[in-house]
Amino acid sequence: MNERYENKKHNYDDLMDYDADGSRKDYGKSRQAATAAVKLTQDIMTVLACDLNGTDAKNLDHFLQKFKMPEEFCKYHEKPKCDDRKKYRTPTGICNNLERPYEGSSQTAYARIITADYDDHLSKPRRKAYGYGLLPSCRQVSLAFGSKPIFSREYNNFFAVFGQFIGHDISLATPATDTYLTPISSCTCGSKYDWNKCTVIDIKPDDPYLRGQKCMAFPATAQAFKNQICSLGVKEQMNGNTHIPDLSVLYGNTVRTAAIVRSDQGLLKSTRTHWSKLEMPPAQREGKSCVDATYKQPCFAGGDSRLMVTLGFTSVQTIFLRKHNELARALHDLNPHWSNDKLYEEARKINIAFFQDILYTRWLPLLFGTDEFKELFGPIGESSYNVNIPPVVFNEVAAAAFRLHTLVRDLFSRCTPDGNRIDELWLHDISAKAKYAYDMENNGLDSIICGLFYDYGFAHDGNFAHQIHNRLFESVNKYGQLWRNDLVAINICRGREHGIRGYNAYREYCKLPKAYNFEDFGDTINYDGIQFLKKNYGHPEDVDLFVGLNLEDTLPGSLIGPVSACLLSLQFKALRDGDRLFYSHPGVFTPGQLQTIVDYPFHCFICSVVDIDKVPLNPFKPPNDSDNVLKSCRECANFDLSDWAETQSAIDCMMRVLIVSSVLCAFILTINGQFNQAQQMSGFQQSSPSQMPNSMGNGQSNQFIPQNINNNGFRIPYPQCLSTDIAASMLTPSALQSLFETKLQQEERKLANERARNTGLNNNDIMDFDAVQLRAGTHNGALVARVATKVSQELVAILGCETNATITQYLDHFLKRIHLPGNTCVFAANPDCSNFINVRTITGVCNNLQRPYEGSSQTAYARLLPAAYDDGLSKPRSQSVLGGPLPSCRQISLSMGSKPVFDTSYNNFFVAYGQFIMHDIILSLPVTDSGSTPISSCSCESQDTDMCTVVDVAPNDPFMAGQQCMATPATAQAFSDQVCSLGVKEQMNGNSHYIDLSVTYGSTRLTAHGLRTGTNGFLKTAKRSWSKFDLPPGQREGRSCVDGTDSERCFAGGDSRLMENLILTGIQAQWVRAHNIFTVELANIRPDWKNDDFLLYEEAKRILVAVHQRITYDDWLPILIGKEAANRFTGDNGVTSRYDPSMPGVVFNEAAAAALRLHTLVRDLFTRCTPKGELIDQVWLRDVNAKCKLAYDAANNGVDSLLCGSLFDYGFAGDTNYVQDIHHRLFESVNRQGEIRRNDIVAINICRAREHGIPGYNAFRQLCGLPRASQFQDFTDTMSFENAGKLQMIYKHPEDVDLFIGINHENHVPGGLVGPVSACIIGTQFRHLKYGDRHFYKHEGQFTPAQLDAINRYSNQCFFCHTTDIEKVQANPFQPPNDQTNPLGLCNQCPIFDFNPWRVDSRTMG
């Protein structure tokens, strides 16, 4: 009574998506009777003081069901008469099973796979944890799930919406109601203890999305009697719909609803518009299922009040409504003598058959995977009715397994009849709103139907769209408070309210071993999922079924995991085999009729009832040009109803039977006086979805700074894709701040998990990344940059912008106008450069005095061309211009050779020195745990492309069989142009960009300080008793090699990669030795500098950086790109050059990720020789890779023996061949499971460039002045016909060719080792690093003419001699010795560096 009073005051539009249609006679009493029976059971058990634990609890339900309720409270005490319902379905589902006629009917209890698990074993929701304590809050668990689902190209949005349609057809968790069948409205945060009426989910005050909201409260599910037996017992929940897939969602699940939706002539009621020949659902005359209804644009009505949950769902409903009416009209034309009822029933029967055929032959095979479906279900046509199988929905399926909300999109496309995109609508724009259904200019519902085919679905990966995760049914209550719900938390708590056991119980049921610890879940859940469970649950028994299912790894070719597949196969087999009228069962249709139904193409079924020109061959998958082409609707034939035609003889026979039967019935009824009057049908009231306004909550502080804003409002010029109204509300400082804080919290939670994982991590498992500490700031700079990208993605999506590569640059310009708060920006204020006018800083800051952060360490790479991301913002380039995916990185790599040939024009020292240069200017710093350690959670299942790069490996890979992938951390992000703003993703260079020996001295002050002795300008070294030359210092922290000991330590330097191979270590040793030599000489030549650690250190460093730059530009670069190109890009007319402050001294992403990845030159066999040049032996790359043993080999002169050998070892030709040690066996190791793990540098290079958004090779041809290729043979101006043909075999189109692969197939430029496009990119790079470096040694004013002359005269040969134990070195150490062209010279005849010009220094060092 109190509830009825409350409900009179209540606006039912605020209720969720419950259907209040419960008009069947006495069902109201039956619901209350079921509730009363449970409460009576509780009271009896309390009075009897029964212990409900242990064995007694298992037998309790069987005992209690012996106590029957009085008949007046039981709707099942009489069996209905089913004789006249054997051929057609009843609206309620009654009489499907003739022996148990109520089974599977509407408003009966869900069945159970496993007995209920209530805290009191009767009705109290499952809240107790295993052992002791409470289960985690539903909202707490929900918040641990992600809200960034990724797209799956395996299915489209029509598949997801159709799944929701199926779910609504077979299940409706009817809410607890008053006796008038109106959902109770008194649920509040204080209702948590009346669990039979309300479910209450607590919300913490610091909830990131629901601040100020104490709880989510909604009616509990109504109760029903188990097995249609009115008795005492354990609580069971009511399914308001028929359990069987029978289109009750369209036709209704009560007699009254079915009558309301019908028209005459066998038709369903519909709405006609003047602008379309096609129908829409009928207008709703009572109740209100939408929030924006008007007299001219009313809400829609149907068999289920949830038809307007979204207009996507309404669209599917409309398809089947139109099909029914098409069938009814055609049947009337075919059999004009049929009655209205027969036309209705036959059209309904065929329509349901289409629905079931689509469900079982199209939808379920895609959900399960074709092979898994065949194994579980067998051939559909071979099934038969089994009277002993109850066709009922299981509670576990309704409350967990079929709650597939991770697939639900929150953005819906609309398109024209010819498939051209109109726009995109957010979920809240079409949820419980009719507006766009009546949009005649854009084709109403058909534009939404069209969009469903083209929109990719979301992967089933444990991420939920933000609008259902944290903004469900968003509304403002009567007090002006923003109110939101969380469907994930609701699903978890609904499962507990329904007494659903934990995930572990269903593992056992599905023949999987019971988990005794979280690691035991590893056979169904990946490492990240297990960590999720550990963080949120205390024991495996506690894990909620819904949570466990959503964390499962999907089965091969499937969208769901193994336990989900087990439960759902059980469910849909029961609904097939237990349904007497299932379409394919013998006798339901004639063989000819059934064959006609199953032969009718799915796409033609759709075409026949929509205003769309073309539909995909499989409408559940996005269209493509190969296996799912668009099919013209004009080519579809009408559905053939000839098998439903009745011949004249059959009609005459039926008429005679009908007349005789009528006369006989009338005679009997007259004799007995038993003519009955038709009873009036009772009324009903529908509930409707709650309001969902599209406003966004404001943030807490006005920290963001959108540019061009003034007192009159926003002045950003919006891109054309934006809605100005939405943008004006969204692009406010407070809204942006709120969005930023949300994303920041999400990313910080990820990194907190990473720090936990990284505890005790063996850094040798990580590739060649430098784990340098990021520059200090309020927040980690890389983290904030990544968050800014996430905000950009969210913002562009919310604002309704299409994101793709074609509008990347335009969107980027717009987003860069939105600056982050100063307290989050490491570049908020310019540094004081007054003390660094004449001194190069360690970080590179203050090189350009106008833009002081430019080129400094831990800033973004620049770009020669705009980024090419799949989504225009951050998603790695993965799609062919012709549609479909680009070829796998590993697949491309395998097409490259592993048999390189020698090139006698250069040697291995040239290659090693090139690697040294690259390490000096490039460090693609990995995503870290916000400390100093790269993330360690990257695995084959990693979906977050901002965190991990995953290279798939095929099962039949010839070198990596049994290895599923190569997974490495993605590159950390940074802000473009050192401006902390939103925008397209950019990657971080961990080193300073300049050629400044940061590889030796360090790129951070902390590293530089750690490498210095602090006295006399010296660098630290490791002394050797057996040589006059030292080694780099031993490493005190971390471990850069795998074989270091206390006596033979790994080595430390300015860059942790110095031990990638021992030749690289040797070159590092040369520069450390040279620094300390130069420091001594400077102290001797300048007595006034003695004991001045700063001056000696800085001047020695300044001179050696100049020597390094000279060697790089004069000796190394001309060999690589040819003398002509080197002179064209970096040559000078005189002795000196001039600094250009307008030229950025930065590394280009294209050079770092492709053009300077010169791995085709790398050798895998290294010679060692004595100081006299005599051969010692040869060692493999794996013997010197991250190993220090040979560096301490006193008998063979340590690293100097390898440096000596590098002078004699020929290089490899720069072609498409790579040595096996880096091609197929890179960083080979054995993991803890004893499995061999390998990497492939070629595949990693390709995927790294895609991750960095590097455009294809063709774009750089155009940039470098070559014509853009339209066909592969156009490439023959830069490569051989054979190589162009190879690319054609790998790629679909010239635009698809990766830059790294394209330049590796080029013919070399004259006198160089690379092709023309590569030379163009590399030349441009080194031009910028020369003229954009204020301290470049040749620039006017950097050195006096005499000093510059001394630097120029100091040859690479003499530098080599003075820094090693070697006795003879050739004139050009980058080329093999040759008696005629490159003779060996005695090192004792090499002049030392001339320090005389430093006796008087004209420069003043600050």
From TrEMBL:
Enzyme Commission no: 1.11.1.7
Localization terms from the record: Secreted
GO molecular-function terms, A-Z: heme binding; lactoperoxidase activity; metal ion binding
Domain of life from the UniProt record: Eukaryota
Alphabetized UniProt keyword annotations: Disulfide bond, Glycoprotein, Heme, Iron, Metal-binding, Secreted, Signal
EC class of the enzyme, as a word: oxidoreductase
SUPFAM superfamilies listed in its UniProt record: Heme-dependent peroxidases
Any one Gene Ontology cellular component term annotated for this protein: extracellular region
Catalysis performed (reactions): 2 a phenolic donor + H2O2 = 2 a phenolic radical donor + 2 H2O
List of residues binding heme b: H405
Listed GO biological process terms: response to oxidative stress
Record-linked Pfam families: An_peroxidase
Xref: PANTHER family: CHORION PEROXIDASE, OXIDASE/PEROXIDASE
Protein name listed in UniProt: peroxidase
Organism: Adineta ricciae (Rotifer)
Organism classification: Eukaryota, Metazoa, Spiralia, Gnathifera, Rotifera
